[in-house]
Amino acid sequence: MADAERVRLRYAPDDDDVASALRSETFELYLRRSKAGPVESGDEWEEIVNDGCGRTRPVTLRVESVAGGSTVGEETRFEFRATTAE
Fold first, then answer.
1. What average pLDDT does range 36-42 have in this prediction?
2. Residue 73: helix, strand or coil by DSSP?
3. Residue-number span of the structural domain to which 55 is assigned
4. Contacts 24+ apart (CB under 8 A), 18-25
5. Measured between alpha carbons, how far is 78 from 28 in angstroms, rounded to an integer?
6. 18 within domain boundaries
7. Could you tell me the pTM of the whole model?
């Protein structure tokens, strides 16, 4: 199985502090290690992020698309998009 180049994730809740935490290099490294292995659209991951001042917050990540392979690996990059209310 080839490593995915990019995994697009939708996240909720939509909050500036959560968005900032998700886009940190440290969190991407954590995702590459903790989610190493097969990945596909529709997968959901329940995570906890630091939203500043030592506070943590639960966040739901849903895999929207996977490009360039079928597994999360050391070179996989993540793209985050807020889940919008419909």
1. 97
2. coil
3. 6-82
4. 18/49, 18/51, 18/57, 18/59, 19/80, 19/82, 21/49, 21/50, 21/51, 21/57, 22/49, 22/59, 22/61, 22/78, 22/80, 23/80
5. 7
6. yes
7. 0.89
